Amino acid sequence: MAHVDAPRTMLGKIWDEHEILRHPSGPSLLYIDRDMIHEGSFHAFADLKRRGLKPRRPKQIFGVADHYVPTLGRTSRDAASPAIAHMIDTFDENMEWGGVRHFGLSSRSQGIVHVVAPEQGITLPGLTIVCSDSHTSTQGALGAIAFGIGQSENAHVLATQTLWQLRPKTMRVTIDGTLGQGVTAKDVMLALIARIGAAGAGGHAIEFTGRVVRDMSIEGRLTLCNMSIEAAARFGMVAPDETTFHYVRGRKFAPNEQEWDAAVSHWRQLVSDDDAEFDREVAMDGAGIAPMVTWGTSPEDAISIEGRVPDPDSFESADKRKAAAKSLEYMELSPGTQLSGLKLDKVFIGSCTNSRIEDLRAAASILKGRKATISAIVVPGSTQVKEQAEAEGIAALFREAGFEWRDSGCSMCAAMNGDVVGPGERCASTSNRNFVGRQGPGARTHLVSPAMAAAAAISGCLTDVRRI
Amino acid sequence: MMKAFTRETSTVTIIPGVNCDTDQIIPGRFLKADRAEGYGQFLFHDIRRTDDQALDPSFPLNQPGGDRATILLVEDNFGCGSSREGAVYALVDHGIRALIGPSFGDIFFNNALKNGLVPVRLSAEHCERLAEHLARFPDAEVTVDLAASELILPGNLGHHPIVIDAFARECILQGLDEIEMTFTYLDKIKAFESNRMASHAWLAR
Ligand code: SF4
To answer: Quick one: which of A352, A371, A366 has its CA closest to A430?
Structure first.
């Protein structure tokens, strides 16, 4: 264990608190506080059954159906195909078999796992949280170690409530200044990834700090940490503070009122010591960030909405020149094209990046009194977000603007449930990945913030939200 | 389901492209499949085919001999993106035993090790030299000798250390079952757990 008196980072403190032992050959056996399960976990359950094992600590496991769920209707019969319905039914069966508490399709607590976990108080400061989904990094926004794992590791957690892990290096990303009007957490992340690259934080845990982050709501912090995996970071984290405690208090699986003060005083001690050293430092000026949009097929292919499609020859490395040329061919774009004004076919507002209430509010505020001119859908991140948006009148604003108002799930982010962008169609999307074929074979994705997506729906093309 | 790995010698197929994400290795729509059906058929499904679903003759795996290699040479940040272990299943079920590249997505790297697929990190410069060599000598063979922690490149490209943490290396050399191994520490896990629950009763309510 690290010397207790030496200054430590938040990562170091939470890690030390969860280290059961360290193997002589390097990795720590980490205690895992909570594991989140979704439909894709059927491989892990098959593994357990083959071994004759059951989840060892079912109360620390939570299931939620999200990747395959229909967004028009709330039973597996509404699924896009029998094979997809089977995924949803298998999930319910596995949860029952394992004695795991779960929020199935018809539950009022259902939603995208990384939206639901903070909402239910499953995600809390100081915890280790895993889920067999790469965007588990989202949940580090509350001051936790949260990371995505594969199904073999998931089976390991279910069976032992532990994981063997090598401690990552640390990277501090400091975002100072203030964000300009129309600039959001999504734009900050796209700007960061454009700068350090899609492999830029490989092997590192990012801690986000600086005035912009301190001033940010939990929703915004969740967006930051969500996309840290797109920079290849192992974890994304934000130190817990008053904003965090206020957000967490009273949530279902959080400490109760009798336990509260002790929990908070412990959480306060978890922040990085002033003189703690990070392996890498990156600083950004919030004021210098514009609303961003991607032009290629990697999240690092992001530029200001005021920019033009770059010339592949302008990149330094031969690999990047090749990749950019291939991206432009797939995206059917030519160098020098102005991004603002680029015609679109679809708009998707949703995903664990940008489907929380604040995201929907931001999009709806742009739509007030206006009409979408292209096909546009909103998929709230959770059933609770959906109900809240309906109560606040936001759903009505979307509907009046001609948006489809759907039930919650991953939907068009990964196109596993049958909601797809058609071949050759161009979509402004609030999700996190513009990979080739991610939103459907041949689909072309431009990543943007919710406000930018709303602006795009109105004008039918990529649009600078500040000019609306 | 770990297959032990000690040493593998094979020709090498080059998979081009930086940031080759797991959506390219296996598109999301195939992840519903039962593993028993074999995932090899889904490997690089969309990028190895043309729009009309025919195999694209220009994709390296589709070229003569391209399918024979059990070792792939890949570019920077291979396996980034989604945590889907299906990407590793597709490679393994296709018969791939090792990958060589400058860097790999972290979750993909771990998933590979759990399935006996060995990802070898090699500097971008050496990867480039290997690619150049293979362009001239497509039948050249590479050896991944995990037992000796050594990557043996053809021609005069030399021997290079394989850097994988000792723990994972040991597991993969012996084809060790990690869950069973961890169970040998169950007493320690339980002691730790009861301690943690004493101060965090709400964790398991
Ligand atoms: S919304 Fe998208 S990124 Fe998030 S968990 Fe679902 S599929 Fe993954």
So the answer is: A352
